[in-house]
């Protein structure tokens, strides 16, 4: 049984994702910056956040808002300077908060000097750093691969008559990860930041790094229908998740392991059985946390979520530490997906499942997707495939700090509109509301940190009744019963064992302190976290 002192920080603590452009603007240009994040370190501390992941802060033409990097070892001037970065790192570390950087190894910007060299000629020493191929025999792109952002994944370079591969925008050429020089160069990038003292990386599209050597065509997706994203027309059998990617991951892990106590998280959207391969064949040969996004895509239904949890728990390899995510900068906000009434349950679920939770900034306020007027659209995804819901601006809007103009995010025009609900849904106002979502997160995080059963204990499914999802967490003699009513109807449930407990945290504050014995009644949309005081099954 794991006890909390044997757990690593990244197992015990929650991770909080900051989208730097939208967190806090101190320079007055309407775009968030590093100084703004430093200024808010006190907020992380109050909330109980012990690890912050920053979406990319590197120099970039911003075609994909920082995921098109032109210099891996520098800071984008709009976001600040290297000195600002060092100050941020220092400030966070002083407060016992870790800093995780975004690493984007699959592609660079097309204005990165590596690509500018590579495209010069077929015999340029950097030619093979990217994926170049001749046109197909019949002319046109070398194969049928689609960009994630729609259209062919190949762009013709007229100067040399060859195509280069880009899994995203044409301004984001894919690096050739079969080339050992590329690997070495990226390891050096990692060491640069690790030497500065950063605590780890979230690795962008890790499962994309290796493509089929033979560049075989992807098969068609029989489930594709009009109105679905262009990319989904094909099954990505050959353009990602190739067997050789695991060797790359293993090497990457070794680089991180040159430094004590660091973390790699992999961004990987794959079914559970394939996702867990990224823990590595042997312990400590993969990433520590292959991001588990399945709560984002699973229907908000007690049966479905129960099934997902057992599938995921059952698929984890020995020593593989679980993790859960409810939202990020690419997905609709949790509020837009499950509705306001379920936000307390979403918090309870994320923070009481076994494994490391990752929160997305503003979800603790119940920030919603914000409707973006056409003239304010920023995201290239929306421009390329308008109106089908793939644009990501709605979930990237400014953090809502207070009820002053622009929610206290900036004193200029914000780069994306502020949510219309900011007058009430903001940090300052919600801190005053003892029964609001923010205080609920605060209290839940504090309890999670204090209780080994919650941050490190074992997980036991208890049952599902209608929309009531019940499970238990246990460490030695201390145990909790979690009951989440994901539906609107009041539901009662009597587990097969005898037990009693006291409600410790409840979405309905009136239930706090209530004693429960054997049968539990939960109103629609309510959630309870109950300290078990007696249990015939687990002592
Ligand atoms: C995944 C990132 O999360 C997303 O924002 C980005 O557009 C793509 N990777 C390309 O880097």
Structural commentary:
- This protein is of the alpha/beta class.
- It has helices at 9-12, 34-39, 41-47, 82-94, 113-118, 180-196, 245-257, 272-275, 294-297, 302-315, 334-338, 343-352, 380-384, 427-432, 437-450, 452-455, and strands at residues 15-18, 51-54, 98-103, 132-133, 154-157, 162-165, 200-203, 263-266, 289-290, 323-325, 356-360, 458-465, 468-475, 478-485, 491-493, 499-506, 515-517, 520-522, 527-535.
- The strands form four sheets. It has an eight-stranded parallel sheet with strand order 9-8-7-3-2-1-11-10. It has a six-stranded antiparallel sheet with strand order 12-13-14-19-16-17. Strands 4-6-5 form a three-stranded antiparallel sheet, with no helix packed on it.
- The protein is globular.
- The protein starts with 8 loop residues before the first helix and ends with a strand.
- 1-deoxynojirimycin (NOJ) binds next to loops.
Name the structural class.
alpha/beta
Mean pLDDT: 97
State the shape. Answer: globular
Sheet with most strands: strand arrangement: 9-8-7-3-2-1-11-10
Small molecules held by this entry: 1-deoxynojirimycin
- First-to-last CA distance: 16 Å
Radius of gyration: 24 Å
Low-confidence stretches: none
Could you give a short account of the major beta sheet? 8 strands, parallel
Number of strands: 19
Helix content: 10-25%
Per DSSP, the total helix count is 16
């Amino acid at each position: 049984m794991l006890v909390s002192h044997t757990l690593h920080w990244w197992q015990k603590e929650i991770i909080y994702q900051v989208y730097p452009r939208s967190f806090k603007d101190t320079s007055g240009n309407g775009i968030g910056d590093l100084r703004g994040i430093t200024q808010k370190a006190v907020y992380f501390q109050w909330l109980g956040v012990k690890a912050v992941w920053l979406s990319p802060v590197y120099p970039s033409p911003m075609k994909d808002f920082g995921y098109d990097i032109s210099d891996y070892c520098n800071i984008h001037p709009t976001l600040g300077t290297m000195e600002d970065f060092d100050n941020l790192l220092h400030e966070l570390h002083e407060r016992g908060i870790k800093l995780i950087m975004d690493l984007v190894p699959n592609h660079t910007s097309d204005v990165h000097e590596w690509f500018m060299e590579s495209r010069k000629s077929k015999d340029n020493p950097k030619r093979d750093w990217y994926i170049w191929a001749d046109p197909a025999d019949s002319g046109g792109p070398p194969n049928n691969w689609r960009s994630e952002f729609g259209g062919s994944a190949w762009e013709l370079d007229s100067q040399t008559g060859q195509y280069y591969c880009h899994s995203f925008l044409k301004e984001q050429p894919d690096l050739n990860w079969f080339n050992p020089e590329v690997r070495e160069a990226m390891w050096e990038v990692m060491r640069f930041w690790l030497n500065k003292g950063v605590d780890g990386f979230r690795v962008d599209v890790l499962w994309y790094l290796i493509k089929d050597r033979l560049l075989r065509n992807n098969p068609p997706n029989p489930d594709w229908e009009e109105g679905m994203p262009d990319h989904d027309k094909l099954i990505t059998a050959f353009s990602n998740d190739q067997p050789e990617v695991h060797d790359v991951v293993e090497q990457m892990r070794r680089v991180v392991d040159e430094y004590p106590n660091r973390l790699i998280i992999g961004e990987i959207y794959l079914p559970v059985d394939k996702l867990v391969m990224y823990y590595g064949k042997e312990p400590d040969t993969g990433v520590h946390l292959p991001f588990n996004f399945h709560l984002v895509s699973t229907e908000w239904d007690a049966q479905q979520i129960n099934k997902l949890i057992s599938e995921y728990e059952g698929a984890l390899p020995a020593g593989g530490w679980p993790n859960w995510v409810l939202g990020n900068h690419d997905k609709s906000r949790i509020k837009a997906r499950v509705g306001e009434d379920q936000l307390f349950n979403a918090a309870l679920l994320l923070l009481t499942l076994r494994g490391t939770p990752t929160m997305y900034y503003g979800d603790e306020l119940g920030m919603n997707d914000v409707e973006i007027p056409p003239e304010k659209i920023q995201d290239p995804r929306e421009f390329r495939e308008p109106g089908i819901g793939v644009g990501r601006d709605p979930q990237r809007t400014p953090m809502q700090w207070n009820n002053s103009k622009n929610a206290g995010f900036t004193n200029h025009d914000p780069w994306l509109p502020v949510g219309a609900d900011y007058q009430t849904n903001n940090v300052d106002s919600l801190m005053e509301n003892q029964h609001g979502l923010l205080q609920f997160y605060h209290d839940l995080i504090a309890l999670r940190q204090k209780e080994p059963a919650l941050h490190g204990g074992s997980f036991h499914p208890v049952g599902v009744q209608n929309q009531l999802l019940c499970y238990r967490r246990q460490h030695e003699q201390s145990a909790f019963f979690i009951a989440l009513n994901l539906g609107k109807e009041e539901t009662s449930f009597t587990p097969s064992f005898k037990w009693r407990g006291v409600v410790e945290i409840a979405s309905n504050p009136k239930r706090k302190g209530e004693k429960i014995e054997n049968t539990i009644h939960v109103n629609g949309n309510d959630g309870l976290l109950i300290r078990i005081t007696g249990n015939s099954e687990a002592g």
